[in-house]
Amino acid sequence: MDAPSVRSLLLATDRHNTVLAGFAPSESGHMAYTAYGAQPRDEAQISHSGFNGQLREQGTGWYHLGNGHRIYNPALMRFHSPDALSPFGKGGLNPYSYCLGDPVNHVDPTGRTPDRLQPLLTIGLHTFTIAATVLTAVSTPPVGLALVATRMTLIGSSLAIVGSSLTLAGVKEARYVAHAGTALSALGAVTRLGLGVQNIMAKPELRATATTRIGQLFGRRAPNPPQLPRAIPSSAPAKGALPSREAIAKRSVTPVSGESNQAVAPEAGIQAMQPGIHPLTHVNAVKALQVPRPGEPVKAASVSSRVRRSV
Fold first, then answer.
1. Phi first, then psi: what are they for 209, rounded to 5°?
2. What is the pLDDT of residues 101-144, one digit of tens each?
3. Which of 104, 160, 219, 270 has the fewest Cβ atoms nearer than 10 Å?
4. 177-228, pLDDT tens digit by residue?
5. Cα 68 to Cα 75: distance, rounded to the nearest angstrom
6. Which of 114, 149, 181 is the last residue in one of the domains?
C-alpha cells in the first residue's frame, strides 16, 4: 500500500486569510477572486483553502460555512438556504445575502453573522446602556444595593466596549473580555430589575401606578382624574356663613316707628348680628348716644325712653 504523499506549501494570504498565491519546491501559482469570492473555472487550484481561508469544494466551488451550517455559492453571491436570524434579527432583511452585501469589509465564517458586525453591535449596545444608566442615575440617585448594581453595569459595559474594539483590531482573545463585560453588565441590570420589582410589590400605591403606566404603554387609555367641586364665587356667601363687613356696610337698619329715617353705622349692624342680643337694643342705644352737633342741646329724656322702648 502506497503511503500518502505529503508536500510542503507556502501560502500568501491577505488580512481575511484569502489565499492569493502558493509556493512549493516544484510548483507555484496565483489565485484571483471577485469581491464575492468567485474564481475562473479554468484556473488551477493550488490549495483547497480559498476565499477568506475557507475550504473550497472541488468541482462546484461552493463553501460549506460553519462546518456545513450553510452553503455559500460565490457565483450566485448568496447562500443556498435562508438565515434563521432574518429578517428581524442580526441576519438582516435579506436572509440569503452574504456579509450583508459588503464582503470586502466583512467575513462570515459561520454562515450566521459577519464577524466584524458582532463587535460593532456590541459597542453600540453598550454605549447606549452606559448613556441610559448615567441619565437614570442623575434623575434618580441610586443608594445601597442599587448603587452597587449601577456600578456593575457601567464597569461591565466599559469592558465590553474595550474587548469589542480590540476584537476589531485583530486581537481574537479580546472577545472573551467582551463576553465577560456583557455578563457583568447584564448582572447589574438584573439586580436593579429585582430591586425595582421588590419596591413595587412592597408599596400598594406604586403597584397601582405601575399597572396603569404599563397599560398606557400598550395603548390603554388613562383613567379620567376625579372631578373637583366647583368653586363658589366670591360674591355669593357660602351657606351658613356670616355676611362680610362690606355686605353689612351696604345695608341699612329699619328705624323704630317715630324715629327719624337715619342710617345706622356699620358697627351697630355688626353688633346686632351677635347671637343672643336683640338687635334693636344696640341700634337705639347707639342712636341715642350720638354726639349732638355744636349748639344743639342734649336730650337725656329721649335717650332713656328710647332704651326702655327698645327693651
1. -65, -40
2. 889 888 888 887 666 677 888 899 999 999 999 988 888 888 88
3. 219
4. 999 999 999 999 999 889 888 888 888 877 777 778 777 777 777 666 666 6
5. 18
6. 114
CB 126 within 8 A of CB 161: yes
- Looking at the domain assignment, is residue 236 inside a domain? no
The domain boundary residue, chosen from 94, 114, 134? 114
Burial environment of residue 71 by CB neighbours within 10 A (0 to 12, 13 to 18, 19 or more): middle
Give a yes or no: residue 2 inside a domain.
no
Helix runs in the chain, H state only = 65-68, 117-139, 145-168, 174-202, 204-217, 245-249, 266-272, 279-288, 300-310
C-alpha–C-alpha distance, residues 90 and 19, integer Å: 28
- Which residues constitute the domain of residue 287? 254-310
Express each pLDDT in 268-284 by its tens digit: 444 445 555 555 444 45
Residue 143 contacts residue 121 (beta carbons within 8 Å)? no
Q: How far apart are CA 200 and CA 55, in angstroms?
A: 56
My answer on whether 109 and 16 are in the same domain is yes
Residue 11 DSSP SS3: strand
Residue 52 and residue 15: Cα distance in Å, rounded? 9
- How many domains, the chain? 3
